[in-house]
Design brief:
Layout: H1 10-18, H2 21-31, H3 33-65, H4 69-118, H5 121-124, H6 127-138, H7 143-169, H8 173-203, H9 205-218, H10 221-229, H11 233-286, H12 291-332, H13 349-356, E1 365-373, E2 383-391, E3 395-399, H14 406-413, E4 421-426, E5 429-430, H15 436-442, E6 443-446, H16 457-462, H17 472-482, H18 485-490, H19 511-523, E7 530-534, H20 542-555, E8 560-564, H21 568-571, E9 576-581, E10 584-589, H22 591-597, H23 600-612
Parallel strand pairs: 3-8, 3-9, 6-7, 7-8
Antiparallel strand pairs: 1-2, 1-4, 4-5, 9-10
Helix pairs in contact: 1-12, 2-3, 2-7, 3-4, 3-7, 3-12, 6-12, 7-12, 8-11, 8-12, 9-11, 11-12, 17-19, 22-23
The chain binds adenosine-5'-triphosphate.
């Protein structure tokens, strides 16, 4: 989002206050059509009724002054009816606002999350986008409603103001002008401070995220063990407090400024009111005004002034809400290359065949052509000029030191990232040209940091292929292939057991058991002919890992497989081993060839073999 201009002038700010109003109202209208219309009608009623009440008040006083019992009673009843109607309207508005707020919050949060699904991995790793997302989510349920309430409030105040203005005008045009002028300074101050408050929150958005993070580390089960054993709780808490205190001081300064200025400037309005009131009272004493008129003008003046002030101070609020909405809308408009975010346009048949890659005569396999990759904001290349061809059906193992670039290669292969340079072809077709869904269907992956869904075992496995979540045969095949049968056998409600500790009656699994579930999830993708295991077996003991890979190899027969592992019993099973270092392939061949070569691989192998002795 573009940072707000540090010193926008009042007019710019005024325009900025309404920039996103139409789009927000449209959102509202789409979310809750009937409720919006009703709210608008009630808003108009709430604007007009107080005028009636004021007029009835005047009529009562005049009737009393004329000693008319009947007229007095009649007007009291009229006022009662109007006040009752006003109360009803206000209740109705409150109800509608809370309903609309809930509906709008749900829809907007839904849209934010839907957009998050289409963001690419790199977006989640960009602090700016992440801040935008966090800001959008944090206030999604309150801001849009506040904006709508404020807009309607302005309409209401305008109508009320026009009514009181008309009533007052009968007495003195000068008074109307005084009413407006006396409210102006306070309102301008409000607009300015509102802008300051927004910018304060925006500036500290990264710090606010840090505050949330500290809170999360301090109060979350995954971190509790280390936090206790290393005794880092106190250090983190102190940091949390220090940051929290800084926020508090900033907020306090602003609040004090707001209250002080507000009070000082409202005195001006009050002074103007009493000056006019005195002049009206003197007029009444002289007999120029009836007592009823005095009451009516007094009320009109005060209420009108309030309405005017509330319009102007609403502008300050509107400015803030608009800045929030602009953050939301620009987040929603983040361009993504991901096919998932592109509008789904039906491809003509010929083009479809192209992207599905089933044309005869094309090479079968995966080709890296001069592929380089640099993470956003990094100087160093994580992969440098990689050329590689893996024919369909080959099993490839990637080995190399930590940070060598193995996972990066997998991320590019699965199109989580696009190469900075060069291209990757699957069956002769650039990955970028593939329909993303078709591509993802062909690839089954388990990463080292696979997810542990705090959901049922059925969902944990079934998520591997959501269209087949209810397919009992497929689930059971996947569980067998992943080696998770024993895990399932120990679960109290079988597939319907809630896993994890977050929710009631959840069964927590061991690291190795979770891994087997994750493997079973990957095996749900029966159509996938490219299988990737990026060290998902690290929590398994060496024997179990070996067993998993033996089974994996058998099951993967005829498919292309990529395995990242630091364990040689696993690595040596592959048809082809790639030794990666500094983002390049420095050696390749079968286990026997590489050992014979007596290079890096042979050294790494000897070292590990020693460890096992
Ligand atoms: N999201 C990221 N943003 C920036 N740099 C990254 C990111 N992920 C990895 N890197 C960097 O890219 C390089 C390659 O990392 P990669 O994860 O591919 O290594 P790896 O070979 O899989 O290591 P390991 O065996 O530890 O898993 C490293 O220098 C790492 O610091």
């Amino acid at each position: 989002m573009a940072e707000p201009n540090p010193k926008p002038n009042l007019l710019v700010r005024l325009r900025g206050s309404f920039e996103h109003t139409p789009r927000t109202l449209l959102l509202l209208f789409r979310s809750a059509k009937l409720a919006t219309i009703t709210l608008f009608v009630l808003t108009l009623a709430a604007a007009v009724l107080p005028l009636g009440v004021a007029y009835a008040g005047k009529a009562i006083v005049d009737a009393v002054a004329a000693h008319s019992r009947e007229a007095t009673l009649r007007w009291v009843l009229v006022e009662l009816a109007l006040v009752a109607a006003l109360a009803l309207v206000q209740r109705g508005m409150g109800l509608l606002r809370s309903l609309i707020g809930a509906r709008l919050g749900l829809d907007i949060n839904g849209a934010i999350l839907e957009k998050a699904l289409t963001l690419e991995l790199r977006h989640f790793e960009e602090p700016q986008v992440y801040d935008q997302l966090t800001r959008a989510r944090r206030e999604a349920s309150s801001r849009p409603l506040a904006m709508v309430t404020e807009t309607f409030g302005i309409v209401q105040s305008l109508v009320t103001l026009a009514g009181y203005g008309a009533l007052l005008f009968r007495w003195s045009g000068f008074a109307v002008l005084a009413l407006a002028l006396a409210s102006l300074p306070g309102a301008i101050a409000e607009v300015k401070l509102g802008n300051l408050a927004f910018r304060l929150r925006n500036w500290r958005s990264p710090e606010a995220r840090k505050l949330n993070y500290l809170e999360y580390v301090l109060a979350n089960d995954a971190h509790a063990k280390e936090v206790k054993l290393f005794g880092i709780g106190q250090v983190l808490l102190e940091r949390y407090r220090a940051l929290g205190e800084k926020f508090y001081r900033e907020d306090r300064a602003l609040a004090v400024q707001r209250a002080g200025l507000g009070w000082g400037l409202s005195l001006l309005g009050t002074g103007a009111f009493y000056a006019c009131y005195a002049s009206m009272a003197l007029g009444a004493a002289r007999g120029d005004l009836t007592l009823g008129d005095l009451v009516l003008y007094g009320i009109s003046f005060r209420q009108g002034q309030q309405a005017f002030q509330s319009i102007l101070s609403s502008l300050g609020g509107m400015y803030e809400h608009n800045l929030y909405m602009s953050n939301l809308f620009s987040y929603l408009a983040i361009p993504t290359n991901d096919g998932a975010s592109a509008p789904k346009i039906a491809l003509p048949d010929a083009a479809k065949r192209e992207v599905e890659g089933d044309e005869a005569g094309r090479e079968q396999g995966i080709r890296f052509e001069g592929v380089s990759f640099r993470y956003p904001g990094q100087e160093k290349l994580a992969l440098a000029k990689l050329d590689l061809f893996v024919p369909r059906g080959q099993s490839v193992a990637l080995v190399g030191h930590n940070g060598a670039g193995k996972t990066t290669l997998i991320k590019l292969l699965t199109r989580l990232y696009a190469p900075t340079e060069g291209r990757i072809l699957l069956d002769g077709k650039d990955l970028a040209a593939w329909d993303l869904d078709a591509l993802r269907r062909r690839i089954g992956v388990v990463f080292q940091d696979y997810n542990r869904y705090q959901l049922t075992a059925r969902e944990n496995v079934g998520f591997g292929s959501t269209p087949h979540m209810e397919d009992a045969d497929r689930l059971s095949r996947a569980i067998t292939r992943g080696g998770a049968e024993e895990v399932l056998a120990t679960l109290p409600s079988g597939l319907d057991t809630q896993l994890g500790r977050w929710f009631k009656d959840g069964t927590e699994l061991s690291g190795g058991q979770w891994q087997k579930v994750a493997l079973a999830r990957a095996f749900m993708r029966e159509e996938a002919d490219v299988l990737v295991l990026d060290e998902p077996t690290a929590a398994l003991d060496a024997e179990a890992e070996h067993a998993v890979f033996e089974r994996f190899r058998k099951l993967a027969e005829g498919r292309t497989t990529f395995v990242v592992s630091h364990r040689f019993p696993t690595v040596r099973m592959a048809d082809r081993i790639l030794v990666i270092d500094g983002g390049r392939v420095i050696e390749e061949g079968t286990h026997a060839e590489l050992v014979a070569k007596d290079g890096r691989y042979a050294r790494m192998f000897a070292l590990q073999a020693e460890g096992y002795r």
